[in-house]
Specification:
This protein is α/β, with parallel strands linked by helices and 458 residues long. It is 29% helix and 26% strand. Helix 1 crosses helix 13, helix 6 packs across helix 9 and helix 6 crosses helix 13.
Length: 458
């Protein structure tokens, strides 16, 4: 597949890294020569320096025979014009654009993206993706990572195992015997910085970071089995009243279960916009690092703090300050991947990486096969792929134990009709089933082959 990626920042670079590693023909376009050079020096990609929306730049990048254009520059307008030029002049079949401004995303204006107007096939909204990720973190406060699959019926949980975990030193195969009705299955383990898929005889140890699949209704029990207690988040303080913080606060207001949320926003205009948009949420204007303002927000009695400003250092420091005041759960938005290693030393419970959520959203729309969802794990160490099994798939009609999965791949959940089941070696995968597969990064191309359909899928 020939792909042009416009924008060589963190998102564009990560997408290029994924696709070039799978032997796709990738060209990266950016007006910054240093970013283009970084991509061409570290990845197997071609680079073009210039404005992505200029027709001559796109032609130089190979738009005349490109299969897809991914517009992920920092400018919404450049991304939109790039897709228009790619369609009108070069007839590129598939166009994906990242858009931030909420006005472009309002449902009543959705006709804008029809082919006869602004021909964008897929619109990705980083703020909406991040807000959803924040809500999922709040739903599973003792997990450092979480994502839902199969329409919310299956949940992936990332859990750090403590010394008091009751199932330490227990072979994984015994967990099925000990908890026969539990749907949980461990698909990945990160130990001493290395992520791997465990075998049935492997044991778990304190300090392991594990990735588990479980049915949604079993989530609380699964967390309990692995030594985690769950508590409702009734009082939440949100640092940052921009698009992300506002979206989270609005979602919390819409819940049937009453949540008392307070928003702290430094910028007065943003604070006023948030106050007008929210009905029951108190909005405070000021610095989220101010202990006086945190006290005014009653931080001592909060169940969680969610720091989602556009400044990583503010988010980290606000989370640390809240933890010192006794807040049990701190979630921080972190753009810089190099800062993730500070989470444990600073005792921050969970983090959200906006670029990772955006990358996952884009990958969902470029994977081969009937892929419905993709989630990127860690620093692109693995992917979780949700896909429907078609008659052309090599998996159709075979038991899991007979399928030639590469090492580093585990089936985490299967949906048959309306029912989600825990996969076993004897489970037969049929046409129409939806499978959720955990795959280490270097095995993704082989997994795609197992899900393969003809190229006219695009």
């Amino acid at each position: 597949m020939k792909v042009i990626i416009c924008g060589a920042g963190q998102v564009g670079w990560q997408i290029a890294r994924h696709l070039s590693g799978e032997r796709n023909d990738v060209t990266v376009v950016d007006k910054n020569p240093d970013l283009v050079r970084r991509a061409t020096d570290t990845l197997d990609v071609q680079g073009v320096v210039g404005f992505a929306s200029y027709p001559d730049v796109l032609e130089t990048a190979g738009a005349r025979d490109a299969d897809m254009v991914i517009a992920a520059t920092h400018s919404d307008e450049v991304n939109m014009v790039t897709c228009q030029v790619a369609h009108s002049i070069f007839s590129v079949p598939r166009k994906i654009a990242r858009l931030r401004a909420q006005s472009y995303l309002t449902a009543i204006y959705s006709d804008l993206y029809q082919r006869e107007h602004m021909p964008i096939d897929v619109v990705i909204s980083p703020e909406r993706e991040v807000a959803e990720a924040a809500l999922q973190r709040l739903a599973a406060p003792t997990a450092f990572d979480t994502e839902s699959f199969l329409g919310g019926k299956s949940q992936m949980l990332g859990i750090l195992l403590e010394e008091d975990c009751p199932v330490l030193d227990t072979p994984l195969r015994q967990l099925t015997d000990l908890f026969s009705t539990l749907t949980a299955i461990v698909v990945g383990v990160r130990r001493k910085g290395t992520l791997f898929t465990p075998e049935p005889n492997d044991q778990l140890f304190a300090g392991d970071e594990i990735y588990i699949f479980t049915n949604a209704e079993d989530m609380a029990r699964t967390l309990e089995v692995f030594g985690k207690t769950t508590k409702k988040q009734d009082r939440i303080v949100i640092i940052g009243g921009g698009n992300v913080g506002l979206a989270v606060a609005q979602a919390l207001e819409a819940r049937a279960h009453r949540v008392r949320a307070k928003v702290i926003e430094k910028d007065r205009n943003r604070a006023e916009i948030a106050a007008e948009a929210l009905e029951r949420t108190i909005v405070l204007n000021g610095d989220g690092l101010s202990i006086d303002l945190l006290n005014e927000a009653n931080i001592q009695h909060a169940d969680a703090i969610l720091a989602v400003t556009d400044d990583d250092k503010t988010n980290l420091l606000a989370s640390v300050r809240a933890k010192t005041e006794g807040v049990p759960l701190a979630i921080s938005l972190v753009n810089d991947p190099s800062m993730v290693s500070l989470m444990n030393p600073l005792h921050i419970d969970a983090y959200i990486n906006p670029r990772a959520t955006t990358v996952s959203s884009i990958l969902r729309h470029i994977r081969h096969g009937r892929v419905r969802s993709v989630y990127s794990i860690g620093d692109a160490e693995a992917e979780i792929i949700e896909a429907q099994v078609l008659s052309t798939s090599p998996m159709a009609g075979h038991e899991i134990s007979d399928i030639d999965f590469p090492e580093g791949v585990r089936v985490g959940a299967i949906q048959k009709g309306d029912k989600v089941i825990r996969p076993r070696g004897s489970t037969r995968i049929e046409e129409g089933d939806v499978v959720v597969i955990f795959a280490l990064a270097d095995t993704v191309p082989e997994v795609e082959h197992l899900l393969q359909v003809s190229v006219d899928f695009f």
